[in-house]
Design goal:
The complex is a heterodimer of chains A (245) and B (344). By secondary structure, chain A is α/β, with parallel strands linked by helices. Chain A folds into 2 domains: 2-133, Rossmann fold, CATH 3.40.50; 139-242, Beta Barrel (OB fold (Dihydrolipoamide Acetyltransferase, E2P)), CATH 2.40.50.1020. Chain A contains 8 helices and 15 strands. Chain A has helices at 11-21, 36-46, 62-68, 83-90, 103-116, 120-133, 181-187, 232-242, and strands spanning 2-7, 27-33, 50-54, 74-79, 95-98, 139-144, 147-152, 156-162, 165-170, 173-178, 193-197, 200-203, 207-212, 218-222, 227-230. In chain A, a hairpin with a 2-residue loop joins strand 11 and strand 12. In chain A, helix 2 runs parallel beside helix 3. The longest helix of chain A is centred in the middle third of the chain and has 14 residues, at 103-116. Chain A is elongated and about 75 Å long. Chain B is α+β, with helices and mostly antiparallel strands. Chain B has 2 domains: 4-153, no CATH class; 159-337, Heat Shock Protein 90 (2-Layer Sandwich), CATH 3.30.565. Chain B contains 9 helices and 7 strands, in the order H-H-H-H-H-H-E-H-E-E-H-E-E-H-E-E. Chain B has helices spanning 4-27, 32-59, 67-92, 106-157, 162-178, 180-199, 208-226, 251-263, 302-315, and strands spanning 205-207, 230-236, 244-246, 269-278, 281-289, 321-326, 329-337. In chain B, the strands form 2 sheets. Chain B has a 5-stranded mixed sheet with strand order 2-4-5-7-6. In chain B, strand 4 and strand 5 (281-289) form a beta hairpin. In chain B, helix 2 (32-59) runs parallel beside helix 4 and helix 5 runs antiparallel to helix 6. The radius of gyration of chain B is 38 Å and the shape is rod-shaped. The chains are: A alpha/beta (245), B alpha+beta (344). The A-B interface holds A 9-13, 15-16, 19, 34-35, 37, 56-61, 80-82, 98-101, 134-135, 137-139, 150, 152 and B 161-163, 165-167, 169-175, 177-178, 224-226, 228, 263-266, 293-294, 296-298.
Chain lengths: 245, 344
């Protein structure tokens, strides 16, 4: 049996999926979700094999949801119209259904899933591609257990690399996200976030001054008086970003 | 074509010129007939000279840096006119009856006189044609701007989101199996709504009642899709139902309210529209719940900007749309003047 979760904010859209899936005896629908938050809980609870996932949803988008999962199940996207995402779909092996879609088109997508099984790698590539194609996002979505947090970029003080994770320091606390610092450096606006050290990406707004340390080293002093080390190239980058010669 | 107005304006000074010339000769005790003949001969030659200048300037208008060439040309022409006059008059007129014979340096004087006349004629012609060309340019520019404005208005009005259309079709597909009657109702709503958006000319104003009926169709469709959580209210006093507003002006604002109020939240939402009269304006306010953290991140503000722009193009005012956000509610307040709108 393929344990399947339906995620769409429209009841009728889910109903259509149910109707269509009835003719596929190997599909077991383990749950239905209205939004990304519900979906997060349901995925942790049911550990489904396959998601039918809408992209535009309240709170967090389908892509943002996938970013939060430790282990990504098979995904068939359902969407009405999403220019930028469609390009990404076409470049990837993950299947997608354009609403309204036919029962035949759905069973084709299912056949593909049955043959290929989980396409985790492709899905991760897809997310990466969508993120890089998209204009700079104005927020980062993180989770702690089943708890999802949306962090506006303006709340971020700095980001620090931490093994396979990035520590996100905000005004209200620290959050972990499975991601590389490299990714954030290229995804975030270079005029606001500067790589001041191999492992630190600083929000320029938080900088209050640059202080010399022993030898040629410098510290960045933040608004709350905390200090971050500056690497030699980081020091140069920071000066360039501030327009100091 | 050579305009008859130009011809008259060219000829009448010459009649005065001939009269003055004749009068002068009569003063010198020349009889009227030979005096007129002398005047007519000189004037005709000079007239031919100015005519040739007019014809040239009509097609070729040198900029002022080339004015020296024109002056040289005028000088040569003046000399030719005086010389031809002297040559012809020797055969036609009695010696002593010509204006040429009445002063000491008659020939030189005539050249100078002809030169001055030709030059002022050149100047007048140049000014006249330049003005005319400018006028034509202005008219052309106004035409182009008018067309651009119309195209822009049409573009701003084309707000129908493919997202909305395809999702509605998907709902119909779902209903066909479970509730065919509801599917038919939805299809009808969608058709009426689409007809309302395609048939309307953005330059035409419609009654507020008609505009709000279109909005209501839109709400009803969204209620089929999200009926469990979308509540709407439209309140309008009867006296302003017949007031007019530009067609589909409210649509982008209502779509915005749905996008952020309904798509952006999970609970039950209320989208409220209130229309009231305020002096010479009708004021329409649209409110929706708004959660800044959870809203879709793309496409923010385009609807608002397009309405702002359209109001500016129609009324040349930037203060007719205001938006505020307070305590989880987003409010768009639009004011539509009830004065005659400039038509385009």
């Amino acid at each position: 049996m393929i344990r399947t979760l339906l995620i769409d904010d429209e009841p009728l859209a889910r109903q259509l999926l149910r109707d269509y899936l009835r003719s596929s005896p190997d599909i077991e629908i383990v749950g239905e979700c209205n939004d990304g938050f519900e979906a997060m809980k349901a995925i942790q609870e049911h550990k489904p094999d396959l998601l039918f996932l809408d992209i535009q949803m309240p709170k967090i988008s389908g892509f943002e949801l996938l970013e939060l999962l430790d282990e990504i199940p098979g995904v068939i996207f359902t969407t009405a119209f999403d220019e930028y995402a469609l390009k990404a779909f076409e470049a990837s092996a993950t299947d997608y259904l354009l609403k309204p879609f036919s029962a035949e088109r759905l069973s084709k997508a299912l056949d593909k899933f049955r043959q290929q099984g989980k396409k985790v790698k492709q899905t991760e590539e897809l997310i990466e591609k969508v993120n890089s194609d998209n204009s700079p996002s104005d927020r980062i979505v993180v989770k702690n257990g089943a708890d999802i947090r949306i962090i506006p970029l303006t709340e971020i003080r700095y980001l620090e690399a931490y093994d396979d994770y990035v520590k996100i320091f905000t005004k209200t606390g620290m959050f972990l996200k499975k991601q590389t610092l490299q990714h954030f450096e290229s995804a975030l606006d270079a005029n606001s976030f500067v790589r001041i050290h191999r492992s630190i990406l600083l929000n320029l707004k938080e900088l209050s001054r640059i202080e010399p340390a022993e030898k040629d080293n410098h510290f960045a002093v933040l608004a709350d008086k905390s200090r971050l080390p500056l690497s030699r190239t980081g020091y140069l980058k920071l000066k360039a970003a501030l327009g100091i010669k | 074509m050579f305009n008859s107005r130009i011809l008259i304006s060219q000829i009448s000074p010459w009649l005065i010129w001939i009269a003055a010339h004749t009068g002068l000769l009569v003063q010198f005790n020349v009889e009227l007939q030979p005096a007129m003949a002398d005047a007519a001969l000189f004037a005709t030659l000079l007239f031919s000279g100015t005519l040739s200048i007019t014809l040239i300037l009509r097609t070729y208008r040198p900029d002022w840096r080339r004015s020296f060439a024109v002056l040289t040309w005028n000088g040569m022409l003046a000399f030719a006119v005086a010389w031809i006059y002297r040559w012809i008059s020797t055969f036609l007129l009695q010696p002593g009856t010509r204006i040429l014979d009445k002063t000491e340096h008659g020939f030189t004087l005539l050249i100078v006189l002809a030169f001055l006349v030709l030059t002022s004629s050149s100047l007048l012609n140049w000014l006249w044609f330049t003005l005319k060309e400018q006028e034509e340019n202005e008219k052309w520019k106004a035409d182009v701007e008018g067309m651009a404005r119309e195209a822009e208005l049409a573009g701003l009005r084309q707000q129908l989101q493919p997202h909305f259309l395809f999702n509605s079709l998907n709902s119909i597909s779902a209903l066909l199996n479970s509730d065919p009657a509801e599917a038919r109702k939805m299809l009808q709503l969608l058709s009426d709504f689409l007809r309302g958006t395609v048939k309307k000319d953005p330059n035409i104003k419609i009654s507020l009642k008609e505009e709000l009926e279109q909005v209501e169709l839109y709400f009803k469709i969204e209620q089929v899709r999200f009926g469990h959580r979308l509540k709407t209210s439209i309140s309008i006093t009867q006296e302003i139902e017949t007031c007019t507003i530009p067609a589909l002006l409210l649509q982008p604002l209502v779509e915005n309210a749905i996008k952020f109020g309904l798509y952006g939240t999970t609970g039950e939402v209320l989208i409220a529209i209130i229309a009231a009269k305020e002096g010479n304006l009708i004021e329409i306010s649209i409110s929706n719940p708004y959660d800044p953290d959870a809203s879709p991140k793309r496409g923010t503000g385009f609807g608002i900007r397009s309405v702002q722009r359209r109001l500016y193009l129609l009324y040349a005012r930037n203060d007719l749309l205001q938006t505020t956000y307070e305590n989880g509610t987003f409010l768009a307040r639009i004011r539509v003047p009830q004065i005659p709108v400039m038509t385009i």
